[in-house]
Amino acid sequence: MRSCSMQPQAFSGRVPGVHRARLLPGLCAFAAVSAIATASHAFERQWHLGADLGWSAVSHKTSIDGQERIFGGYGAGGHLVYGLNDTFNAMLEVGVSGHPIYSNRPWMTVASGAAGVSYTLDILRWVPYAGLLVGGYHFSAVGHDKAETKLGFQLALGLDYAFNRSWAMGVQLRYHTFADDPFSAHYMTTFGRFEYRWGW
Hints:
Layout: H1 16-41, E1 47-61, E2 68-83, E3 88-100, E4 107-120, E5 126-141, E6 145-162, E7 167-178, E8 187-198
Antiparallel strand pairs: 1-2, 1-8, 2-3, 3-4, 4-5, 5-6, 6-7, 7-8
């Protein structure tokens, strides 16, 4: 490399081995930084398409006793992610969950769709991230409560593990809150995720 070439007189009066010993740590550091930058750049413009499955909980005021209660349940969904650059990803998340309210009542279902942005940190094969999303929610329970639609917000925290450039799996926790009460978490999902990646 031209930038690294030096004239012989630069080492005049010095012991060459000493200069090489002093230069070696700097060259190693430069090589490591270059390798990390190259690996991170590979995630830019990358697409992720995957499926989600796991546990969910919703806080809801029922018409039976008018009390706010937490109902656990199961959920599933899908996600689409696009790498805007080596740090930020665009996110699209859809999901549905079912929550048994009482043994002799129909399940309450929560369907949602949201879009947002996440910040990622690549650590070799492990990729932790955090994201913010906004979207819509639809609550329904036939024969029990009236269906309801709300605007909501999501805080997503996740950790992915890449088997290779094409396949990865991970876990994601999302806290959901709604525009009519934005400082309370009324809905939470914890999903295992499996995805296919392409377009480096």
